[in-house]
Specification:
Structural class: mainly alpha
Strand content: under 5%
Order of helices and strands: H
Number of domains: 1
Largest sheet: none
Number of strands: 0
Radius of gyration: 22 Å
Length: about 50
């Protein structure tokens, strides 16, 4: 009985950890896709403002 509950707890932990890590990866990829154009526009804007 004790061993079964330990296994179940480990499985739940792995599922929760997997979901959290996948969400982090998703956010990271989204940021990596969104940031470069935004930074480029900001740089362009700064250059235009400086000129």
């Amino acid at each position: 009985m004790i061993k079964e509950t330990e296994v179940n707890n480990k499985q739940e932990f792995n599922i929760i950890f997997g979901i959290k890590s996948s969400i982090l990866v998703y956010y990271y990829t989204a940021i990596m896709l969104v940031l470069p154009p935004v930074l480029y526009r900001l740089r362009k804007g700064k250059v235009v403002l400086e000129i």
